[in-house]
Amino acid sequence: ASPATDSNATGIEAEFQLYLNQLAADLATVESVKATAAELTKLAQLPLQALRCIHRSCDTNSISKAIDEARAALQPSIDLLAKLGQQMPAGTYYKYHQLWREPVQQLCMAVTFISFLESDRLLSLEDAASQLGMAGDSDGGGGSTLHLDLEDYLFGLLLLASELARLSVNAVTAGRPDLPRRVADFARHLEAGFRLLNFKNDALRRRYDGLKYDMRKIEEVLYDVTVRKLE
Amino acid sequence: MESKRLIFTLHRVAGASDEERLAVLTEVSQRLDKLIASKLLPISSELTGQDPWEYRRAYSPGLQELIEAMTFLEFLSTGRLLSLSGGVRDRLPSGLLVSQFDYLLGVCDLSGELMRLALNAAAKADFDTPERVLAFLQKLLGCCETVPDRGPDWFPKDFAGKLETMRQSVEKVETVCYQQCLRCIEESNIQLPVVTH
């Protein structure tokens, strides 16, 4: 074989060796991110579990108790999110995003739910992010820090809408006929806000399509309560 | 198959009098014992000495159906959830592998049956049963939601789907109790017409 062919062959090997090394490093990061994400998925359920007790007993005391428990249950998730941020090299936020979207959406739902229960207020993205120890969407800085993605925040709000629709029904059964109006007022503003948005044809849009069913349920419960003068 | 028939029989309890209830529950319990003896005991003896996980897939669906029937019976008798270690495994031949997944999936299916029970009871003006079912189901759903819905290969793939079905069942029972509540309020507010001359 001529010297020219030999050096070409070695060139290709060296090239591929480079790829293999990079791939191995990348896979190692993916594995560690996946492991943290799995842990986060487990932990993210806990605040929701605490909050969902409200469906059974929603007098003022039970609600405060649920909120306190949920807040306490949020802390481990917040700590884990910080750890997650450190595991991903700078500038790779969106590369691994899909691995941990779901628990972040559920945590978003938890904090916005608490905000509604406490003060009927819609928690802004910035506030939600800061409560979870993340940066807000706008200071992403090119996607280098762990920040709360706008779409995940919106998804969390849609999850909240479904939960509130369910709460409306159970509130009446549990003796709180005043709650459906609070839910309805909040939900109407939420829906109005969502109507301003232009969606692309993705998972968020499909989830948004479900909002009208939640709204219908909320309005029906409010009607039932009003027409019987239960408030 | 027989498990399905047992479940069907148990549904007759809705709206039945106390003696009828007791009779049905006893009958089902006996048929359950017979079923276990006739079908599961042979399986368990066939499998002695084998790795239990190897053949699990063959009898898993039937086992889940059976667990559904057993837990249904337990709920109707005592209002409690039949546990895996104490209740289910005790009643089944010891050589038979009853994994947590079979139990979990059986329990998920139970929620569907309880939903049907509640709906039928409400239709027969039994307002007590739907409330008890609701309390039970909400607790059950809360616990099932903490189980990760995804896992390694041998983790049941249909768990996520069954969980969603359970949520819908719970919502249906919630709606029934809600409507009951409204009706009760209405009835207590109805003024009897006053006849004046």
Automatic annotation (TrEMBL), chain A:
Q: Name one GO biological process term.
A: RNA metabolic process
Q: Where in the cell is it found?
A: Cytoplasm; Nucleus
Q: Which InterPro entries match?
A: Translin (IPR033956), Translin_C (IPR016069), Translin_fam (IPR002848), Translin_N (IPR016068), Translin_sf (IPR036081)
Positions of transmembrane segments? none
Q: Which domain of life is it from?
A: Eukaryota
Could you give a GO molecular-function term held by this entry? RNA binding
- Its main localization is cytoplasm
A GO cellular component entry from the record: cytoplasm
Question: Which positions make up the signal peptide?
Answer: none
Q: Which residues bind Mg(2+)?
A: 163
Q: Which UniProt keywords apply?
A: Cytoplasm, DNA-binding, Magnesium, Metal-binding, Nucleus, RNA-binding
Q: Explain the purpose of this protein.
A: DNA-binding protein that specifically recognizes consensus sequences at the breakpoint junctions in chromosomal translocations, mostly involving immunoglobulin (Ig)/T-cell receptor gene segments. Seems to recognize single-stranded DNA ends generated by staggered breaks occurring at recombination hot spots.
Quaternary state and partners of this protein?
Answer: Ring-shaped heterooctamer of six TSN and two TSNAX subunits, DNA/RNA binding occurs inside the ring.
Which family is annotated? Belongs to the translin family.
Name of the protein: Translin
UniProtKB/TrEMBL annotation, chain B:
UniProt keywords, alphabetically: Cytoplasm, Magnesium, Metal-binding, Nucleus
Q: Which domain of life is it from?
A: Eukaryota
Q: What protein family is recorded?
A: Belongs to the translin family.
| Subcellular location, record wording | Cytoplasm; Nucleus
Supply the PANTHER family for this chain. TRANSLIN AND TRANSLIN ASSOCIATED PROTEIN X (PTHR10741)
GO cellular component terms given for this protein: cytoplasm; nucleus
Name of protein: Translin
Q: What is its main location?
A: cytoplasm
Any coiled-coil regions, as ranges = none
Q: Write one Gene Ontology MF term.
A: sequence-specific DNA binding
Name the CDD domains on file.
Answer: TRAX (cd14820)
Residues reported to bind Mg(2+): 68, 113
